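Q: I have 64 residues here and want to know how they pack in 3D. Can you give me a structure?
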Amino acid sequence: MKLDEKALEAARHSLDDGAVTPHSDGPWVQDVIELLNGSLATELVCILRYKRHYFTARGRESPA
């Protein structure tokens, strides 16, 4: 099995370009990015809240 060095190099360069490239210039790109970032932030807060409750609970009778 041979690795395609050109394809690997192209993939490396496309990662350096970032998620939004010059080809993704639709009319709602910024709005979509803001919505996705808001959703991600909400999920991260939920995970942190869940972990806090998990680590502070001491059993079924816990007031937490």
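Q: Anything worth noting?
A: The chain is about 65% helix and 0% strand. The chain has a mean pLDDT of 80.
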